[in-house]
Specification:
This protein has nine helices and 14 strands. By secondary structure, it is an alpha/beta fold. Helix 1 runs parallel beside helix 3, helix 5 packs parallel to helix 7 and helix 5 packs across helix 9. The structure holds ligand G4F.
């Protein structure tokens, strides 16, 4: 991707003498390309965050998802081994809470740790399951320092616009500024454990600095619904809403506004349900238990659910204000 806007402030061109940050063209579906980059760089650490990461989209592109998320992981592991870098290069594999699948049959009933059973419910989750096990297998078979971080949902103002948190914070900012009428969402009752990406990325680094290679759950331990997220996002701007109706006919309306800057009409409809956003097999509840990370690595998240939402909404309000000022 040539979209570098999130890293332009730290990017140094290779023309600079001794640049600290260099970009390479890479593609996880291309073994030779991956092997060549690893051969050139001989890295101390690899963080494999590359994925087709949208769960809903994976139902439309299951084969591509497997190529990238499952075999892409194998390509990195095998390249490191083939190049004889097993003792030098540590690898972090971005595993995911989607491995658990949130099935009520699962004995952990929605609160998962490193010993919980896996039951992925999407092509994305199934492909990531291969990534998890092949990473563990290379650790056991070849004694490589390779680790899985089983990350629950992690968000920030840089989150992709089609994931539900950012979709909500962008829409709330647009509705409050009068740019958009309402938001369309799918399952409002899905429950997730949402943390801040900054906290989780710090933990990724800590995982590779730990004494032994292992697998780690990274989560806050707090579960909230999509509905909670929407209510809290409007509240950041002093907009109170109430829900009426049920199923596909559920709506949300403005009840009152407490900030002069964001006065919406009382009774304004701000949410409708769109069945297109439901998944063929939904993961209802995913809440993580990060006890091991806290006890063994001393990791604690610094952000709360509320502070995460506040940061995202304020950032999106600024984004749209700046945009409309510029045009
Ligand atoms: O924001 P989401 O699309 O994230 P999801 O599916 O939980 O996956 C994210 O987190 C995983 C765990 O860390 C990662 F592995 C994965 O790569 C990705 O980053 O959806 C969250 C929930 C779902 O239950 C979904 O059904 O929100 C529900 N939802 C309701 N309405 C919606 C919408 N999701 C999206 N994207 N768009 C909606 O309109």
């Amino acid at each position: 991707s040539l979209n570098t806007q999130r890293i332009d402030h730290i990017y140094e061109s290779p023309q600079i003498k001794n640049p600290k940050f260099i970009l390479h063209y890479g593609d996880l579906t291309d073994s030779m390309n991956i092997t060549k980059i690893i051969q050139q760089c001989k890295p101390d650490e690899i963080y494999n965050l590359g994925a087709m990461s949208h769960v809903k989209v994976s139902f439309d592109t299951p084969e591509y998802t497997a190529q990238v998320n499952a075999l892409g992981t194998l390509r990195i592991l095998e390249a490191v081994k083939l190049l004889g870098l097993e003792k030098k290069t540590k690898i972090y594999q971005a595993s995911t809470s989607e491995l658990y699948g949130g099935m009520s049959e699962n004995k952990n009933k929605g609160c998962y740790n490193e010993s919980s059973e896996f039951y992925p419910r999407s092509p994305y989750g199934v492909a990531k399951l291969y990534g998890f096990w092949i990473t563990k297998n290379y650790r056991e078979a070849y004694n490589m320092f390779v680790c899985n971080g089983i990350l629950f949902n992690h968000e920030s103002s840089r989150r992709g616009e089609t994931f539900v948190t950012r979709k909500i914070t962008r829409a709330v900012a647009q509705i409050a500024l009068g740019i958009k009428d309402k938001i369309y969402l799918g399952n409002l009752d899905a429950k997730r454990d949402w943390g801040h990406a900054k906290d989780y990325v710090r933990m990724m680094w800590m995982i590779l600095q730990s004494e032994h290679a292992d697998d780690w759950v990274i989560a806050t331990g707090v579960g909230k619904t999509v509905r909670d997220f929407l209510v809290n996002a409007f509240l950041v701007l002093g907009i109170h809403i109430k829900f009426e109706g049920s199923g596909l006919d559920e709506k949300a309306y403005v009840t009152h506004c407490t900030k002069d800057e964001y006065k919406l009409e009382i009774g304004k409809e701000v949410l409708s349900i769109d069945p297109n956003y439901f998944r063929p097999s939904e993961v209802d509840t995913l809440i993580g238990d990060p006890t091991k990370a806290k006890e063994k690595l001393g990791w604690f998240p610094k952000y709360s659910f509320e502070s995460l939402i506040k940061e995202m909404v304020i950032s999106d309000v600024k984004l749209f204000k700046d945009h409309y000022r510029a045009v």
